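ESCALATION

Customer reports they have been waiting on this structure for their group meeting. Please prioritize. Original submission:
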Amino acid sequence: MFKPQYILIILLILQSSYIYAAETYISGDVYDISSAEAGLLIRIKGNEVPTKCQNPGGFGWMLISEENKTMISVALAMFTQGKTGATIYTVNTGASFCKVIQYDPDN
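Update from on-call: job pushed to the front of the queue and completed.
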């Protein structure tokens, strides 16, 4: 028989969002977007970034460059539909944020 504290732990795990970070990619829920002259900025819940990315101030912004119009379109379409789960692949540019090289939405 389950003890009450185990049921609570199981419920918290099921309701929590997943975030997985590796050196060059991160999986999680995109919760915030912004635009800049350079392109579309996105953030994963918890402001997490891949371990090889710069993250000054812990803001967690990652850039989809303006020339990657298809990737920006996919990211915006998924975000506006509420489908926020994605795996984001990046390269470190040495700037204040990483450059997104692939946006892979969860199905």
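Sent to customer with the following note: The beta strands are 20-21, 25-36, 39-44, 62-65, 85-91, 98-105.
Escalation resolved.
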